[in-house]
């Protein structure tokens, strides 16, 4: 007989287990799926290009976030945004589940002679405070949050609470609900019934404002569409949001 629920973490792990194993893209168990995704660096995946998100570049250009400082790139993949932050003078911690992504990001950092990025391979929500304790002036997430199942928002908000400095900024890009067709619009409860996340969850501005209501909103808008020749990455099927932790 199993009586194995005692803590919030026990509940979160139980809920993780309600999803089919092939749906897992958010725990160490999902790392091999991402390793396969990143194996061929020449695949025509838009965010494989070594260019930063247009919204991140814009926050810096407009002085909405100050540099330099300490930044965390959450779910950094091949490191395109971490590299941009390092080039702007940030000391960056960049974390990803996939060792294949981290190896690619490290290659890019070597080529760019970016020595101010510390890469971490593992589950951002399971790493110790020594590894990812912050406090960070900026926590940036492009495309990781929307891969988490609903209950893992608890872990996500816990990480922001522990690691974001007072007055620091949190910014994310995630699938937009609506006409884009990117991201599932099933209600949270229905996802558990289906045991699937359908490649990621779509969000509305209202849902993002509610989830991150502990922070002050600075800007929430669609990502601008950037042409293939642009030095910036931009896809309009994503929301971009910038929040600030009250000082
Ligand atoms: C859509 S990709 C985006 C990669 C990168 N941010 C970019 O935009 O180029 C999402 C990334 O989140 C990572 N990820 C998902 N869950 C994670 C977790 N719990 N801890 C660390 N990384 C995670 C995946 O390994 C994947 O590389």
Automatic annotation (TrEMBL):
<dbReference type="GO" id="GO:0008168">
    <property type="term" value="F:methyltransferase activity"/>
</dbReference>
<keyword id="KW-0808">Transferase</keyword>
<dbReference type="GO" id="GO:0032259">
    <property type="term" value="P:methylation"/>
</dbReference>
<dbReference type="InterPro" id="IPR041698">
    <property type="entry name" value="Methyltransf_25"/>
</dbReference>
<keyword id="KW-0949">S-adenosyl-L-methionine</keyword>
<dbReference type="Pfam" id="PF13649">
    <property type="entry name" value="Methyltransf_25"/>
</dbReference>
<dbReference type="InterPro" id="IPR029063">
    <property type="entry name" value="SAM-dependent_MTases_sf"/>
</dbReference>
<keyword id="KW-0489">Methyltransferase</keyword>
<feature type="domain" description="Methyltransferase">
    <location>
        <begin position="72"/>
        <end position="168"/>
    </location>
</feature>
<protein>
    <submittedName>
        <fullName>Methyltransferase type 11</fullName>
    </submittedName>
</protein>
